[in-house]
Write a structure and sequence with these properties.
single chain, alpha+beta, STM4215-like, five-stranded mixed beta sheet
């Protein structure tokens, strides 16, 4: 499983529209975007990567108050063992409040993944 899959599953349970990258439909009152940020190999043994760290940004866009949704998202991310690296209010854009949450998660790579 990847961070995108896990975050999508988690966020879809909130009943708020979720997209990856850009929102492709006319924007509703509230929606969430997931943006992939990085995939990094941090741990090696015998010249083989053992752990991949994946990073995404969750952007919450809402015309109303973002705090209730932000608090629910943060609580569920922490329960699901994600590491939150930043939380920041990015401003008011085109009638939407924009709040971003950056997170990472490490994934152990299976030996079979490296066999061609």
């Amino acid at each position: 499983m990847s961070i995108l899959e896990e975050v999508n599953l988690l966020l879809n349970s909130f009943g708020v529209p979720v997209e990856t990258g850009i929102y492709s439909s006319p924007a509703p009152e509230s929606y969430v975007l997931i943006t992939p940020m990085a995939d990094v190999y941090n741990a090696f043994a015998d010249n083989t990567a053992l752990i991949e760290t994946q990073e995404v940004r969750i952007s919450i866009f809402t015309k109303g108050s973002y705090t209730a949704l932000k608090n629910r998202v943060v609580k569920e991310l922490l329960k699901a063992c994600f590491t939150i690296t930043a939380r920041v209010y990015l401003g008011y854009e085109d009638s939407y409040h924009h709040y971003a949450i950056d997170l990472i998660k490490e994934y152990t790579l299976e030996e079979e993944a490296w066999q061609l």
